[in-house]
Every structure is written in structure tokens, then in C-alpha cells.
Amino acid sequence: MLVLMLTVRIGKSLYTIFTLKEDRNLLILQIGLSACFLIGVSLYYYLKSSVENTKIIPKLWKVHFITLFLFVVIGGLLKPYTTNNDFWTTFFVQFIYTVWGMYVLASGYVLKGILKKIFNKDEKCTTAELWLFNVFIANLLIYIAYIIGYFYLYYVGTLTFSFVFYGLLFFLLFKNNRDNVFKDIPEKYASKKIENEEALLIIEKLEKVMLQKELYKNPNIKLSSIAKELHISSHRLSQLLNDNLGKSFAQYISESRIEEAKKLITKKSDYTFEAIGYEAGFSSRSAFYATFKKLTGITPAAFRDSQT
User: Fold this and answer.
1) Are residues 210 and 252 in the same domain?
2) 102 vs 146, residue with greater confidence
3) Residue 175 clears pLDDT 70, i.e. is over it
4) Can you tell me the distance from the alpha carbon of 302 to that of 74, in angstroms, rounded to the nearest whole number?
């Protein structure tokens, strides 16, 4: 989305430069300026999702972006460039650039951890961190160039974009960079708390996967295996369990196994408790008994008696 908005904006600039004033289609100019309104928010959420290793886009983010999109579209329909030239070239353009600038500043704040690392001689940045830093600086330069172009030299923004584009392209051409640039950011720089909207989506997906694939029945199940099923990092899943569900991975798996054991005890009256424990995912009879008593307060035998 960020690349799309930048491309539309640069396209508008090239159109303006190479087209005579009397031949210009004002609708194209309006679309180009409208794209500026969405460059900042696109940059902000790209960097935020990368730093926080967000794999599922929260609903709140979508609503935020769509609200801005509808605002600029409806504004353009109510006051089109063709009949409100003064409005667009004075007030609205300044408003668009102000909003763009605010999101650029917010993007810098998102990268505060990486920025500290870059200026700390004792720490080394990963390729992915350097990529995000370069993307931010590139957008900052483009923004500054367009501000200068607005007041002084119009083509400065287009030239800056060209230099920035080729700079980022050369960065990606190096083999090591291509292999590492889109890897997850080290977890210590990720957000300490998963936003509620995203957490609910992951929890829903987790419960669905656990129910359908019965992963807890594997006595050697690992956090990383479940995280892979959810397409999130192991740290992200651990963070979800600890912060949002208030339990460790081991506790979560144990609870799932005990719930399964309860079902088996109720339905399979001919099964021994040892067989039930193994089928529910426990690696030993003693582990099953100890966990069952700890989580339910009674023994498997007492539970079976209570069901008859």
C-alpha cells in the first residue's frame, strides 16, 4: 500500500512536469494529491506491523485506514479539483501535507528502539532493522523534498524519489540483504503487549486449530509447532498466552489435555485411566494423575464416580 501511494503521487508529479498546464487533467492531479494523504498512514502501519511482527492485521488498523481513505475520497467528491482549484492548492494541500508529516513523526516513534540501537556503537542492527530504518529515512526525505517543492522547486520531490528508489533497490540487490531483509525483527524490540483486537483474532484461530487438529494429544508438542500453525512467531504466541490468557504454554496444554481426558472418562467407561492419560497426550500415568488432581481438585476415579 505504501509503494502504491508513493507511485501514484510520483506519477502525478511526472504528469505535471511533462504536461502543459492548459492540457492537464485536473482529476489526475486530485488523485495524486489524495495519495499523499495516505502515504503517511501506510508508512506508519508498515513499520508498526514489522516492528511488532504482526501477522494478522487488527480490525482497528483497517478501520483507521478506511476512515482516512473515505475522508479524502468524499472530500474530493464534494469539492472536486476541477471546480475548487483554490481550495485544493491552498488549504487542502496544506492539510494533506500536515497529516502526512504527523504520520512520519509517529513512524519515527515506532522505530525508537531501532534508532537507539543504530546510534549505539555496542549493538549491531540486523538487516531487517536496517531495511526499516532506510525505508523511514527514504520517506522522510521524500516528505521534506515535497515540502520544499511546494514552496520553491516543484521537481525536487520527483528527483528525491528517484534517488531514494534506486538507493533502496541497490540495498535489496545484495544477496545477504535479499535473504534477511524480511525476517522478523528481534522480539525484544516488539511491542510488550498485543493489542486486544489482534489478540482476539489469534485466540480464535488458536482455539480452532487446537480443536480441529488436537495438537495437545502429541506428548512432545512444542510452542514453536503451534506458532507455525498460526503463522506467528513463538514469542508472539508465548506473549499471547502470558499476557492475554494469563497462563504459561505448559499450563495451556495441560488444561487442554485434562478437558480431553474428562470427555474420554465420560464416554469411554471401559478405558483404563492409564489409557485415557496416554490418549489425552500425557507421557506417563503419574503425570496424568498429578495434573488431573492439580487442575480439578479430585482424582480421575472420583471424577468418573461423579459422572455416574
Assistant:
1) yes
2) 102
3) no
4) 66
Q: In this structure, what is the dihedral angle of CA atoms 68, 69, 73, 74, given to the nearest 10 degrees?
A: -50
Which grid coordinates are listed for 4?
A: 502504491
Same domain, yes or no: 210 and 155: no
| Nearest alpha carbon to residue 130 among 190, 163, 175, 177 | 177
Reported residue count of the chain is 308
Range of the domain at 174: 2-187
Same domain, 148 and 42: yes
Same domain, 237 and 176: no
Cβ atoms of 227 and 93 closer than 8 Å? no
109-156: per-residue pLDDT in tens? 988 888 887 777 666 777 778 878 888 888 888 788 777 766 665 555
The answer to whether residues 191 and 221 touch, using CB atoms and an 8 Å cutoff, is no
CA 88/CA 96 separation, integer angstroms: 10
Q: What is the pLDDT of residue 198?
A: 80
Report CA-CA distances (Å) from 249 to 26, 65, 211: 58, 34, 16
Is residue 34's pLDDT more than 90? no
Residue-wise DSSP of 117-154: HHT-TT----HHHHHHHHHHHHHHHHHHHHHHHHHS-T
∠42-103-132 over CA atoms, to 5°? 60
Gap between the Cα atoms of 185 and 130, Å rounded: 10
Percent of the chain with pLDDT over 70: 75
Cell triple for 244: 492475554
Q: What is the pLDDT of residue 262?
A: 92
